UniProtKB/TrEMBL annotation:
This is Phospholipase B1, membrane-associated-like. It comes from Carassius auratus. The keyword Transcription regulation does not apply. GO terms for biological process: phospholipid metabolic process. GO terms for molecular function: phosphatidylcholine lysophospholipase activity; phospholipase A2 activity; retinyl-palmitate esterase activity. Residues 1-20 form the signal peptide. It comes from the Eukaryota. The lineage of its organism: Eukaryota, Metazoa, Chordata, Craniata, Vertebrata.
Length: 247
């Protein structure tokens, strides 16, 4: 329900007279410069028609291996059966497609660069949509958007288990959540299916340092956070044999 409070607060602020409505008028005037219509007029060469599609993607070899690879060096794109992602707001894609302030709490997971599953490669270029070209039955791409602070089921997140606001200290719990999810998911073979995991995290560590410099000293950041990060990687690798990890 957090987004409802944000929407209500925004509406109340817009109705409050600040300097005789000057604030509201300046805000609305500023928004007009960022509207889709205004952008089309100002930068017509940078706008795309509604029917726009990216050119088809072709590769000389889009077939899977003749047998399940036993080493990551032998894995082809078509061998990847599962895709997953962990991290923070850069992976949840919060506000990515927002056109007004009301869209900021929305997590546009379906267009997230590493695991978004919206449409096809020709609609949105994401890592998941690229892998889908090689394996149309890829499991895990995020199918839709979610709301920050609101519990979302797997049918909405896919295996995009990143959490907005998390930092490196939270990575072990994300890894634990992913392992438990993969082990109990019916449509995959946890031991045999090759999995591609992307981890992007750490921006909030830098921001948190400004909040409490005494706690998050340089030594604390580089030693404790580093250990938690590599502990998380080691945990995933030790319990999930067939995997590829992007860091």
């Amino acid at each position: 329900m957090e987004w409802l409070f944000i929407a209500l607060a925004t509406c109340l602020l817009s109705l409050c007279p600040v300097k005789g409505d000057e604030w509201r008028l300046e805000y609305e005037e500023g928004l007009s410069h960022y509207s889709e219509e205004a952008l089309k007029k100002e930068f017509p060469e940078k706008t795309r028609p509604i029917s726009f599609k990216h050119p088809p993607f072709m590769c000389p070899d889009m077939s899977p291996s003749s047998s399940v690879p036993t080493s990551v060096e032998l894995v082809k794109a078509a061998d990847i059966k599962v895709i997953a992602a962990l991290g923070d707001s850069l992976t949840t894609a919060i506000g990515a497609n927002a056109t007004t302030v009301l869209g900021i709490p929305i997590e546009f997971r379906h267009v997230s660069w590493s695991i978004g599953g919206y449409g096809t490669f020709q609609d949105v270029i994401t890592l998941a949509n690229i892998i889908r070209l090689f394996n149309p039955h890829l499991v895990g791409p995020a199918p839709t958007k979610t709301v920050h602070g609101t519990p979302a089921p797997l049918c909405e997140t896919g295996f995009n288990l990143a959490v907005t606001g998390h930092n490196t200290f939270n990575l072990p719990e994300q890894v634990r959540h992913l392992i438990d999810t993969l082990k109990t998911y019916e449509d995959i073979d946890f031991d045999e299916d090759w999995k591609l995991l992307t981890i992007l995290i750490g921006m909030n560590d830098i921001c948190d340092y400004c909040k409490d410099k005494a706690l998050l000293t340089k030594l604390f950041l580089w030693q404790t956070s580093d250990r938690r990060f590599f502990y998380s990687i080691d945990t995933f690798c030790s319990q999930c044999q067939s995997r590829e990890i992007n860091i």
